[in-house]
From TrEMBL:
Lineage, top ranks: Bacteria, Bacillati, Bacillota, Clostridia, Candidatus Caccopulliclostridium
Gene3D superfamilies xref list: Ribonuclease Inhibitor (3.80.10.10)
Signal peptide feature range: 1-22
Keywords, in A-Z order: Signal
Protein name: Leucine-rich repeat protein
């Protein structure tokens, strides 16, 4: 029977290739690929265990899944010990490999473990020295001691994620390069030469995990990791890549115990993407300790608004981090959040957090160029920022404090202009450190704020300092704005035009806006605005000193709301020409226009009756326009009984005046200096005319007198009229004013007088005769004329009267013939563009203040002149009886360029203020005849550096050279000088001649001579 079976098997082998031959002799051969001849034993669990190699001849062992219809579940103890096996494949029915099962299988090179395997016994694969790769399935829960001992050539090892056995207990090979295991399985493995470590099935990497492993190049972390212990990869100097197989959100939740976790790696991959630019997802609330600390490839990080907590070392030593953007809700208790981020160029952060960052002074951000402040407050303390160029302000900011960074070039507000207007800029008392004055360029919503700034309609409030120091040239604020911070536009140095609405609470202070030329505003402080030319004050009631020292103010317009111009309101406004105010004005205070002498036009919006009701304590100078009409011919209306003081004072346009039939009293200075008033009609209702009512009305030549008063010209009470060439006439008499071409003239007492010029020619030569003979130029004949540029005064003119060419703004050149014997006081005063005056021989006398405040630069005084402003102001000394004087204020000026002065021999006195404030004066020669130098004669001649005091000088009054530029003073007579407060004294405090012998000390003494005069006996 056995023989027959053998024949059948042989036949089958021939026909079918031999695979069924084994099956014929071995029940396991019913499975494709299973190794035949293996030995089996039935277990107590009614399964089979492989117990030996049996008759099997193959070196590639495939364990069958069944034997005799039952599952094969075990590989028994020492079942293949020492066998010549090359490969091993286990079916998924195998659950246990018992001890020494494959011990000493030195030719075993590969193992395919069962996916149901749970236990590998002691020494199960001991000394399997040909193995290079071991892949243990995650089903394995236990590997007994030394299971793979002696597998010394294994380079790739994967352990089960569910096995707690430590590699050091089961394996001693030192050639493993690539290992996959739980962190606990390989923690601190002393034979470690791992190059690639893949962690599986863990949520924590223990401290010192791969400490000092210089072979380590790559680490792969599972998404389940929640904690990495201290120094886990410390001194892993060759670590190149760390892969985290989870999401960025999962990575954000990892707890890093030390800040060196990423310090030794070149590359971090999250979900297989290289981490360079990190955008943390919305929803993350905390960035923990050491988040990306030490990671060298990190370039930028964006943290969303959901993050509310940031640890101090999250970005420690991220040396190549260039951009960090944090949300507005982040806080941190640590002051070192930017420690060693030295290449940071762009930072978004809250002010509160930024100001906390200093690291005890150790942190610096030397390359930070761009800073964006988020949150509701902007304030930068004097901390770590030194070279910042660009500052961005989030639209969420509502409050701004001081900014202690001086290098900012550009500031960007990321909201709109309306939002910027709502921001509060706090006063810290340190104006230099507000945000706007320290930036060169300021942008709102991407547009640079410069040139014309128009606040949008609908804005109701402009906060304090909100436009401080901006490079704007014009400003327009709409009517919707009802409140404005006092310093909203301070230090806008290029601002030239301002328009503010007439709303209470809108008044702003424009401190430092020195170039404003035109402004429309409620009443504000504008004192000292030297470039201001036009001021339209659209709201207010009382002007006080808000416009003092506005040197170039030309036009002031006061709204109808104003009731009073207070004392010294327009003090020192020398160029003020036009003033306008409304019908509600009730009072003009004392000295309201002191040192403001060039007013030409006064515009009054009320009627003549209203004007006459104003209480004037001082004059409002200039041509008077009543409701837009120039007042030239005045008729006082019925019902007016008194003409108030100063009512028409300095009214240059007034030519005729008829004093109404109800007027009983003309107050003092009522018509003072009406320099073009020629005809005056007085009614018999007048009972009194105050002294000085008509002072300096020098053109009055016709008085129609119906009064009962004695108006003789020499009565002191009426000296206002008496100074004029008064000719008494009756109402029926014809006018005595005559015309010759473009000139008006009259004859009085045999003398012809040129009264005025009515022409339009700029360059004129005066007539050689008027009325058939010589003539005088009458007082104020050309006063204030803004047409003429040059005047030739020919033979035939014998005198130039008082103020004849005073304040002619365009007059540049005057030539005076020698037949003019006398030039009266103030003749050219205030003609600021007059640079050239030629006086021919024959001129004998020049009155006081003739050239004061003119532009005269070069002037030659003819030898014929015997007196320049012969003055009663000279001290009554017995030796003053001389031949020539330089009178007070003759050449006074604070503007023009008289550089060289040589005072002619024969001159004995220089009166007070004769050359004061001539800052251009550099050279001065005093004559040997000089005996007297008056008070402030050369005061504030700041460029006069040297002087020689002749031996003839016996009196130098106080402040004669005070505040000058003297550095050298030579006294030809140094002795017998004393100091006194009484110029008539014969003794006093002796001045040490040693002091006067030294050029420098003498000069210093003169410069500081304030209180007393110097006299020589």
């Amino acid at each position: 029977m056995k023989k027959l079976l053998s024949i059948i098997c042989a036949f089958t082998l021939i026909l079918g290739g031999g695979i069924f031959l084994s099956a014929c002799g071995d029940p396991a051969n019913n499975q494709d690929g299973a190794t035949s001849g293996l030995k089996f034993a039935l277990t107590e669990n009614n399964t089979y265990s492989v117990t030996g190699i049996g008759t099997a001849k193959e070196t590639d062992i495939v364990i069958p899944s069944e034997y005799k219809g039952l599952p094969v579940t075990e590989i028994g103890y020492s079942s293949f010990d020492g066998e010549n096996i090359v490969s091993l494949t286990m079916p998924d029915t195998i659950t246990i490999v018992k001890g020494e099962a494959f011990k000493d299988c030195t030719n075993l090179t590969s193992i395919n473990f069962s996916n149901a395997l749970t236990n590998i016994g002691m020494y199960a694969f001991k000394n399997c020295s040909s193995l290079t790769e071991i892949i243990i399935p995650d089903s394995v829960t236990k590997i007994e001691e030394d299971a793979f001992h002696g597998c010394e050539n294994v380079t790739t090892l994967k352990l089960s994620a569910n096995c707690s056995s430590h590699i050091g207990d089961i394996f001693n090979g030192q050639k493993v390069k690539d290992i996959t295991a739980t962190a606990g399985a390989i923690d601190n493995f002393r034979y470690s030469n791992f190059e690639t470590v893949t962690i599986i099935g863990e949520d924590e990497i223990p401290s010192s995990f791969m400490w000092g492993n210089n072979s380590l190049k790559k680490v792969i972390l599972p998404s389940t990791i929640t904690k990495i212990g201290r120094e886990a990869f410390y001194y892993c100097d060759n670590l190149k890549d760390i892969y985290f197989n989870g999401t960025l959100e999962q990575f954000c939740n990892i707890e890093f115990e030390s800040r060196d976790t990423l310090q030794y790696t070149d590359n971090l991959y999250i979900n297989n993407e290289l981490v360079i630019d990190v955008v943390v997802p919305e929803g993350i609330t905390k960035i923990g300790e050491n988040f990306l600390a030490g990671y060298k490839k990190l370039n930028s990080v964006v943290l969303p608004d959901s993050v509310i907590e940031l640890s101090g070392t999250a970005f420690f030593k991220c040396e190549n981090l260039t951009s960090l953007k944090m949300g507005a809700n982040i806080s941190s208790e640590d002051n070192k959040i930017l420690d060693q981020c030295n290449n940071l160029q762009e930072l978004t952060i809250t002010s509160e957090l930024l100001n906390k960052v200093d690291g005890g002074g150790s942190i610096e951000l030397p390359k930070l160029q761009t800073l964006t402040i988020v949150g509701d407050t902007l304030e930068i303390e004097d901390t770590l920022i030194k070279n910042l160029k660009n500052l961005y302000i989030s639209q969420t900011v509502t409050q701004i404090g001081a900014i202690y960074v001086s290098s900012i070039e550009n500031t960007y507000f990321m909201g709109g202009l309306e939002e910027w207007c709502d921001i509060t800029v706090q006063s810290t008392g340190d104006e230099e450190n507000y945000i706007l004055p320290i930036t060169e360029n300021f942008y709102i919503d991407g547009e640079i704020v410069e040139g014309d700034l128009v606040i949008p309609d609908g804005v109701t409030n402009l906060e304090e300092y909100s436009f401080y120091g901006l490079d704007i040239t014009t400003l327009k604020v709409p009517d919707s704005v009802t409140e404005m911070g006092s310093y909203a536009f301070c230090n806008s140095k290029n601002l030239v035009k301002v328009e503010l609405p007439a709303n209470e609470g809108v008044a702003s202070i424009f401190h430092g806006c020195d170039n404003i030329k035109e402004i429309t505003t409620p009443l504000i402080e504008l004192k000292g605005f030297k470039n201001l030319e036009v001021a339209n004050i659209n709201l207010g009631t009382v002007v006080n000193s808000q416009f003092n020292d506005c040197a170039n103010l030309k036009t002031i317009i006061l709204a109808d709301t104003f009731t009073e111009i207070g004392q010294e309101s327009f003090k020192n406004c020398p160029n003020l020409e036009n003033i306008s105010f409304g019908e509600n004005l009730k009072k003009v205070g004392r000295r309201a226009f002191i040192n403001t002498t060039n007013i030409k036009n006064v515009y009054y919006n009320g009627g003549l009756e209203d004007w006459l009701a104003i209480d004037f304590d001082t004059a409002v100078c200039g041509n008077l326009y009543i409701q837009g009409e120039l007042l030239t011919d005045l008729v006082i209306p019925a019902g007016i009984t008194t003409i108030n003081a100063y009512a028409f004072c300095y009214n240059y346009g007034l030519k005729t005046a008829v004093i109404g039939e109800d007027v009983t009293y003309i107050s003092e200075h009522a018509f003072d200096s009406c320099s073009n008033l020629t005809t005056l009609t007085l009614m018999d209702s007048i009972t009194d005319i105050s002294a000085n009512a008509f002072t300096s009305c020098n053109k009055i030549i016709e008085v129609y007198d119906l009064t009962n008063l004695d108006l003789t010209t020499n009565k002191s009470k009426y000296n206002g009229i008496g100074l004029a060439k008064v000719i008494y006439t009756s109402l029926s008499s014809p006018s005595i004013i005559r015309t010759s071409g473009d000139y008006e003239y009259f004859n009085y007492d045999g003398t012809n007088y040129l009264l005025s010029y009515t022409g339009t020619e700029k360059n004129i030569t005066l007539p050689t005769s008027l009325g058939g003979g010589d003539y005088e130029i009458y007082s104020c004949a050309f006063y204030g004329n803004d047409i003429i540029e040059s005047v030739n005064v020919p033979n035939g003119v014998t005198k130039i009267g008082e103020s004849a060419f005073r304040q002619c703004p365009n007059l540049k050149e005057v030539n005076v013939s020698g037949e003019v014997e006398y030039i009266d006081k103030w003749a050219f005063e205030g003609s600021k563009n007059l640079t050239t005056v030629v006086l021919e021989e024959g001129v004998k006398e020049i009155g006081g203040s003739v050239f004061s405040n003119s532009g005269v630069q070069n002037l030659v005084i003819p030898e014929s002149v015997v007196s320049i402003g012969a003055s009663s102001n000279f001290p009554a000394l017995e030796y003053v009886g001389g031949v020539a004087y330089v009178d007070n204020w003759v050449f006074y000026s604070d503007e023009f360029n008289l550089s060289e002065v040589s005072i002619r021999e024969g001159t004995i006195g220089i009166a007070r203020n004769a050359f004061s404030h001539r800052s251009s004066l550099t050279s001065l020669t005093l004559p040997s005849t000089l005996r007297y130098i008056g008070n402030q004669a050369f005061y504030s001649c700041s460029n006069l550096t040297s002087i020689t005091i002749p031996s003839s000088v016996v009196l130098i009054e106080n402040q004669a050279f005070a505040d000058s530029g003297l550095t050298s003073a030579k006294f030809q007579n140094k002795s017998s000088w004393f100091e006194t407060d009484d110029i008539f004294a014969t003794s006093g405090t002796t001045i040490n001649s040693t002091t006067l012998s030294n050029l420098q000390s003498a000069a210093q003494a003169l410069v500081k001579q304030y209180y007393n005069s110097w006299k020589r006996v």
